[in-house]
């Protein structure tokens, strides 16, 4: 009897695959159930092996219990992308695999991979009536240029805000659909899916697949299976859909490619943008990265002729971009973070029946709750962070771990009942504005007001149906949405970005300011953006103020090239957490001793992370920088092997964070 050996990736946080045997031949990519310890778990067949090493060591090889499906979970392009991702991000192969498998297929149940009995017709027809507007010259050129792309062909679609990138996406999708292909559109946030879905559903008759983490596992499985077997040909999804199997995929579009939300920062730390590019390369298909504020990483690739660049520089309605005004707040009284002059600017807009958008990157009422007598500050028991006072919930909340505490009536140190609320969040700004403009609707858009499914659509509808109104919100308000009635935007705390220790702080700040200004004034050439700052002379702020993002980004690129900062070098954080600081330090010091005498690598640390304690664990890292990615990859593999031998490793949790989003 023949015995076949297979390498299996199991759904456990382990850095290796395991060898199992079978008397039947099994195809690569099939799901199987295998014994693991005393449990039965799901695994994916990675490859067949001829002479397993373990046999020579007289080890025991267990048998595969059963094959679960007739169809492979992924075709070879996705398969290879997953292997690449595990290698590039140094993350256990089993976890990488399983993070792209729908939850329902990760456990042993009655679900299997097979075509569904259809309740809809998979045909996609174009609704010609939806094409009400003529394309602008720039849009037309972009569609023509991008339509000609064949094979792996990455393009930056640089379209200023309001230039009508979505129409370009729609027309390209139509072209690919007519050729019998399917299209995947990635968006950075769930909140941006309803408006895009609406545009696609207006243009195409037939089911459009929506895929994101707020859907039920069963719903997700259904969409996944339909896409895999060609019953859905247009998929709109967030980062979790990047490796969704889609029959005959012909094009990938990444909308708002610069957005940090494409990056997953917990567990398997990866960038869906980068994984999508790798996938397009494996699938040999074009990929379009759209943005009004492209990332430096993309701009560098354009400069090196690895990416094409297609521009849409004119706005659909011919309006001019809003004017950015820097407002010095050093000598002006602030009411809940809003300057008096800002209040009067708001008033004149409201009087005209128009809308104002206020951006503040902080939710809650006040970020600091402090005793007025001894200076005691309310902080989280398990994190290194101050508690934020939330007025509507009457709680002190940790924004790190979401623990809610009762609001102290008296100080735990001196028993004083006198408390200060320092700083402002969205709730406080809402309250201040409501008292100044009692007849105007104030619409707050933040994590707290949009938790419920469907709440964001309701809020957006309210904004569209109101006349004069003031919108107060966080990042959510800064992204992708169009608010035609807004003619004034205010950024309350841009200074966080100017003084931040993060490597890409300026890139992020310039993107934010341009994006916020892009929300405003569809039908008004006189829209304004007020940036409140204590650093009105700041050289970078004054460059961004011109509104010329590309010029500013190119200057950042030149500076980063000189300083050998990303995207001209690679950064990796070796992160480490444990209940004691000393365990972290011993582990990281030992890692440092291996890294420190290597020429091509710079290492800084061990350092406490910016958030040095989270959910009861202390957090430290080594900051590793190199100009040679392949060399770094080799060294990290060597380190991974070493870690497994060290007793120090048992006391801590560690991970590599490649191209980290922040050093938090
Ligand atoms: Zn006190
Ligand atoms: Zn906490």
Question: How is the secondary structure organized here?
Answer:
Elements (H helix, E strand, L loop, with lengths): L3 E7 L7 E5 L8 E6 L2 E11 L3 H4 L5 E2 L2 E2 L8 H13 L4 H7 L25 E2 L10 H11 L5 E7 L5 H14 L3 E5 L6 H11 E2 L3 E3 L5 H12 L5 E4 L11 E7 L16 H12 L2 E6 L4 H8 L4 E5 L10 E6 L5 E2 L2 E2 H12 L3 E5 L8 E4 L16 E3 L4 E3 L6 E3 L12 E4 L3 H11 L5 E4 L9 H11 L3 E5 L1 H4 L7 E6 L3 H4 L6 H14 L9 E6 L5 H7 L3 H14 L7 E9 L2 H15 L5 E14 L2 E10 L2 H15 L9 E6 L6
Parallel strand pairs: 2-5, 8-14, 8-15, 9-12, 9-13, 11-12, 13-14, 16-28, 19-26, 19-27, 25-26, 27-28
Antiparallel strand pairs: 1-2, 1-4, 3-4, 3-6, 7-10, 17-18, 20-24, 21-22, 22-23, 29-31, 29-32, 30-31
The chain binds zinc ion (2 copies).
One zinc ion (ZN) binds next to loops.
* Structural domain count: 4
How are the strands of the biggest sheet laid out side by side? 11-12-9-13-14-8-15
* Second-tier CATH architecture of the largest domain: 3-Layer(aba) Sandwich
- The CATH C-level class name of the largest domain: Alpha Beta
Number of strands: 32
List the ions, cofactors and other small molecules found in this model.
zinc ion
CATH superfamily of the largest domain: P-loop containing nucleotide triphosphate hydrolases
Could you give the distance between the termini? 56 Å
Query: Could you give a short account of the major beta sheet?
Result: 7 strands, parallel
Strand content: 25-35%
Radius of gyration: 27 Å
Identify low-pLDDT runs. Answer: none
Oligomeric state of shown chains: single chain
In the CATH hierarchy, the third-tier topology of the largest domain is known as Rossmann fold
Mean pLDDT, all residues: 92
User: Shape from CA axes?
Assistant: globular
Can you count the helices? 19
